[in-house]
Design goal:
By secondary structure, this protein is mainly alpha-helical. The chain is 66% helix and 5% strand. It has a 6-stranded mixed sheet, covered by helices on one side. The protein starts with a helix and ends in a 6-residue tail after the last strand.
Length: 605
């Protein structure tokens, strides 16, 4: 039987496309690249009708190879590019943190007259959500409505998420209200936005209205309660969640799967509530553990500064589960919080070559934090400038925080300019630089920077500390005198400060900024004002309330929305020894367990 050239070409190209699809599902990059080389050397890819470049695009996108995918895409003739090709590349770029390029691809796609579909819009909204790009997101929403995709579930869910991530919860609710049909994902997206932007109380209203709840919805609510210091509510909700899971899954799931699900939830909950040792006990008792369970445990250890424990456990994970990108985020975070620089550099450098994980934004953020905390800011900046993806505010903000710790003023000034462009409303960066100016003796520049914020109407986020006592959450701000037991609290504070001074404590006012003074007498008055301000920080007030409201010897669990300052950290170490109390404080970055005069962070935070 004789084959014509076209028939043979069609048969071979069909076979190659089948192989590429198979290896894309397996993410077999090495084999696929060899096939790509064969296709090039044989010359069969030269005929557009074989659609081999389209198949190669799908393959590289599935393997997460953004550069190769982009190169293959550019080689496809315009006449043979369809909506699927454009969307495939956009989705690959968004998934691998190159969202800005994905948005540019959408603009090019429209200019070329290619009509987007609902999957294209999902990719577009995902990129806008990651970048916080409301302008392009609004255009995408308009496009969705005009093209008749306003009733498509996945597109609406992605649109809601975009508005929520851009801070417009009202617009997200409008999309939600206009939806004719809603899935559990729709409810979960709106729940996440409400909890983040309107608070956990409003979030609970949405949660109670949900006709069905998935694991993500439960986690959002429990984490929201924990972050606000509602530990009692988080435990109560977790118990309710476990009961519901047992009821829903006991009859239709294997006991193994149920044990993993419930065990992982308990590990995650106890770790986030400051009971890391309880979390560890539950983890060890689990009969089976998957990658999610391991990630929960490693992440918890990292948050608590138990980096060496996390690294000791990590090799054991390979016997039970394959690590993923979340695993390595936890491992690098554990190295960062424990100051294990060499270990962190080892795992990061081997991330792709040994473990097959492409470094993502979160991994770079951990490494910048690790190097910055260790004072290796030059290396950290080089890493940032060499990133294959544009650094976000988390990466740059981490580097700025390290500049504040190590007094690198010039680098801090450069970073602030970049951060203002990314997130102009974030006051934390301005406050950090203002403190750096003050510590460097440049009081006028510190005051000037704060005046700029004042004129723009931007206010600093106040520090708040919460403590759960007697089934109620009690919140305190610095110098707060609104609590019904204010007199007893401040009486306890006076007693505590007196005992601290006897033990050698002297208030550290270095980070307390006031307007400049013109005389030695004014300087003395200003220093006294600074000491009074530092002494009445929110966490100290919360501790004093805990002392007068609980039995001696009981541990105290306090949640703070900002990073704990150096003065409070030093003072609470002494307090834990004087009063023989374990005091666990979760600030915005991690847990600090103060016990017998020391902290679990080993003064490295």
């Amino acid at each position: 039987m004789k084959w014509s050239i076209n028939e043979a070409l069609s048969l071979v190209s069909r076979r190659y496309r089948f192989l590429l699809r198979s290896w894309a599902r397996e993410a077999s990059l090495d084999i696929g690249e060899r096939l790509h080389a064969t296709i090039i050397t044989t010359g069969i890819a030269g005929a557009p009708a074989t659609f081999l470049h389209n198949a190669l695009l799908q393959f590289y996108a599935s393997c997460g190879c953004t550069r190769q995918a982009r190169r293959v895409f550019d080689e496809i003739p315009h006449s043979h590019k369809d909506t699927v090709d454009w969307t495939t590349l956009m989705g690959c770029l968004v998934r691998h943190n190159v969202s800005d390029e994905a948005l540019l691809m959408f603009v090019r796609m429209r200019r070329c007259g290619v009509k987007p579909d609902e999957v294209t819009l999902v990719c577009l909204f995902g990129g806008c959500a990651r970048l916080g790009d409301l302008a392009v997101g609004l255009q995408g929403h308009g496009c969705m409505v005009k093209m008749g995709y306003g009733g498509v579930l996945k597109a609406c869910n992605a649109g809601m998420d975009m508005y929520s991530k851009c801070g417009l919860i009202g617009e997200a609710k409008r999309v939600f209200d206009e939806m004719k049909g809603r899935s559990v994902v729709s409810w979960t997206v709106i729940l996440d936005g409400v909890v983040r932007l309107e608070g956990v109380k409003n979030g609970r209203v949405v949660f109670d209205e949900m006709p069905e709840r998935n694991e993500v919805a439960w986690t959002i609510m429990i984490t929201g309660y924990v972050d606000c210091g509602f530990s009692q509510e988080s435990f109560s909700l977790a118990r309710e969640m476990i009961c519901e899971w047992v009821h829903a899954y006991a009859l239709k799931r294997k006991e193994k799967e149920l044990n993993i699900m419930v065990g992982t939830a308990l590990v995650d909950m106890y770790a986030k509530c400051g009971r890391i040792h309880v979390a560890y006990k539950f983890f060890k008792k689990m009969p089976q553990r998957n990658v999610v369970a391991w990630n929960a445990m490693l992440s918890g250890l990292a948050m608590h500064g138990l980096g060496r424990t996390a690294l000791d456990m990590f090799p054991q994970m390979f016997k039970e589960a394959k690590p993923d990108d979340v695993t390595f985020t936890s491992v690098l975070s554990a190295c960062s919080h424990a100051g294990l620089v060499d270990y962190g550099c080892f795992y990061f450098s081997n991330l792709e070559s040994v473990y097959g994980t492409t470094p993502k934004m979160e991994h770079y953020a951990c490494m910048v934090d690790l190097l910055g905390r260790a004072g290796r800011l030059e290396e950290a900046e080089v890493l940032v400038r060499k990133m294959p993806i544009r650094p976000n505010e988390v990466v740059l903000g981490s580097l700025l925080g390290s500049c504040s710790i190590h007094g690198k003023l010039q680098l801090g000034e450069r970073l602030l300019q970049e951060l203002v462009q990314l997130d102009p409303q974030n006051t934390e960066y301005h406050i950090l630089l203002s403190n750096m100016y003050a510590l460097a003796g440049k009081q006028n520049r510190a005051n000037s920077l704060r005046q700029v914020l004042k004129k723009r109407g931007v206010r600093k986020v106040p520090g708040m500390s919460s403590i759960h006592v007697g089934s109620q959450v009690h919140r305190f701000s610095a110098g707060d005198k609104s609590h019904p037991q204010t007199q007893e609290i401040y009486s306890m504070l006076d007693e505590m400060i007196r005992r601290l001074r006897l033990a050698g404590y002297a208030p550290n006012t270095a980070s307390q900024i006031f307007a400049g003074c013109d005389s030695l007498e004014d300087d003395a008055v200003e220093e006294e004002e600074k000491e009074l301000a530092v002494i009445s920080h929110s966490e100290k007030l919360a501790i004093c309330f805990g002392f007068i409201s609980t039995r001696p010897g009981l541990p105290l669990y306090i949640f703070k929305n900002l990073r704990i300052c150096q003065d409070c950290h030093s003072a609470i170490k002494i307090v834990s020894k004087i009063y023989n109390r374990e005091i666990v404080i979760r600030d915005r970055n991690r847990f600090h367990c103060f016990k017998e005069g020391s902290c679990s962070c080993s003064d490295y935070w």
